[in-house]
Design a protein that fits this description.
Blueprint: H1 2-12, H2 21-43, H3 45-52, H4 56-59, H5 61-84, H6 86-110, H7 113-141, H8 145-174, H9 187-205, H10 212-219, H11 234-262, H12 268-293, H13 299-319, E1 324-327, E2 331-334, H14 340-347, H15 350-359, H16 366-376, H17 379-391, H18 397-400, H19 403-419
Antiparallel strand pairs: 1-2
Helix pairs in contact: 1-2, 2-7, 2-8, 2-9, 5-6, 5-7, 5-10, 5-16, 5-17, 6-7, 6-9, 7-8, 8-12, 11-12, 11-14, 11-15, 11-16, 11-17, 11-19, 12-14, 13-14, 13-15, 13-19
């Protein structure tokens, strides 16, 4: 992966030799790792359920622990980044990631569910810190402006690639014998994650990274305390709740589908992993398309359209027949679950649109708003857990649990239509 992004960057940036190519390649690799490690926890739900004989809800504890770490680290992570700088924060995140994945690695051999959840929790600290730093760093390394935004879009593409490969790889490693699968079967995936982390650590140690905001923090440290904050803006508060729901939607849809399909004798983990990978691949496609049309379509219109599409797709998942059909490159799948690909396409651009609408008009309060956003990413753990609590109720089951996703999507649609308007324009933000 590191070699691939290095060659990519070398070709892309030969016309601008001043751009630190190695640093950008490492940022791309870390973007890949954010999604790979996150989706590793989500896709491990089937393995955990098999080895430790857990309920559907408990199988999601790894994902829950991974995202609860955001609630603990979001604001402190922003503080660390401001006061210690990008390089320190990235190195800290990588070291924590190595520890977290190593503990998950060991959990399969000591056969301990608690150890597995602990490893997922520690890995969550790592991806939270990386999320806080990597995108601003890409913007800085690209030189800001359009080039900086282009670097961020490239980073998101590698992020989607990591999200696509994790479930496909785990589905392949599990095979079709889901009832005898253990955490140790996922060792190759964890070795890949550890290898990228170690290489990134070594390269970052010997790289010189720009620290544009470290000096600014020192210069402004004596300014009087501001009586306002991002929480002074109603549209930001509503948007932060929308982000909480969005991440839960993004993770809950494939995680629950993975459990459902893996436990169907006619489908199994390999085909399920392929469909989950296709879901994340559709998110990659959606982000590329969103980047192309983003300058022509407002965030409000885009969020309204994609949230409406997602509602329709999830309802189709719930009410279309589950007749098995042959899907090219995937295999036999229930017809209704094929609609999940439309959900991936719709969900792909929600984060950016919610962020844009929520932070519009915040000015100097935007950096603090980003830290709050990272805290509320914990929805990616809480909603899937609650969804599978519902799935454990026989009268509801896997398919009925998607009603929670529909409710969350309706909230996002209402936010796009009426909740995103800035009603606090009297606050000075310069």
């Amino acid at each position: 992966m590191i070699i691939f992004v290095f060659i990519y960057c070398k070709i892309e940036m030969t016309s601008t030799p001043k751009i630190p190519v190695v640093a950008i390649c490492i940022m791309f690799a870390l973007c890949f790792m954010i999604a790979f490690v996150t989706n590793l926890a989500g896709s491990m739900g089937v393995i955990v359920q098999s080895q430790f004989d857990t309920s559907n809800a408990l199988s999601q504890l790894g994902t829950l622990a991974n995202f609860i770490a955001y609630a603990c680290m979001g604001i402190p992570g922003g503080w660390i980044s401001q006061r210690k700088g990008y390089k320190f924060t990235i190195l800290l995140a990588i070291i924590i990631g190595i520890v977290g994945v190593s503990i998950q690695f060991l959990s399969g051999y000591v056969a301990s569910f608690v150890v597995y959840v602990l490893g997922a929790f520690i890995a969550g600290f790592s991806v939270c810190l990386l999320n806080i730093v990597v995108m601003p760093m890409l913007n800085t390394l690209g030189g800001g402006g359009n080039k900086g935004n282009q670097m961020v879009q490239y980073g998101n593409t590698f992020n989607s690639l990591g999200g696509t490969l994790a479930p496909v790889l785990l589905g392949y490693l599990m095979g079709d014998a889901v009832e005898v699968t253990t955490v140790s079967d996922a060792v190759p995936a964890m070795i890949i994650a550890l290898s990228i982390f170690v290489v990134a650590l070594l390269v970052i140690i010997f790289s010189k990274l720009p620290e544009p905001y470290l000096q600014q923090q020192t210069t402004n440290s004596q300014l009087p305390k501001d009586k306002h904050s991002p929480l002074s803006f109603v549209h930001f508060i509503l948007g932060a709740i929308a982000v909480f729901f969005y991440v839960g939607i993004e993770v809950g849809i494939p995680n629950t589908a993975n459990l459902y399909l893996s436990n169907l004798p006619s489908v199994g983990p390999t085909v399920a992993g392929g469909l989950i990978g296709a879901y994340w691949f559709m998110m990659l496609i959606g982000r590329l398309v969103g980047g192309l049309i983003g300058a022509k379509v407002s965030s409000k219109i885009m969020l309204t359209v994609v949230s409406s599409l997602a509602i329709v797709m999830v309802l189709c998942m719930m009410f279309l027949p589950d007749t098995l059909v042959k899907i090219p490159f995937l295999g036999l799948l229930p017809l209704n679950m094929f609609c999940m690909l439309g959900c991936g396409l719709a969900a792909s651009v929600m984060w950016g649109n919610i962020f844009n609408l929520s932070t519009e008009g915040l000015g100097k309060y935007t950096p603090m708003a980003s830290g709050i956003f990272m805290t509320l990413v914990c929805g990616g753990g809480l909603l899937p857990y609650l969804q599978n609590v519902l799935a454990d109720i026989p009268s509801i089951g896997y398919i009925g649990s998607y009603l929670l996703i529909v409710v969350a999507l309706v909230y996002i649609l209402l936010y796009a239509i009426v909740g995103s308007k800035n009603r606090n324009t009297d606050i000075i933000v310069s």
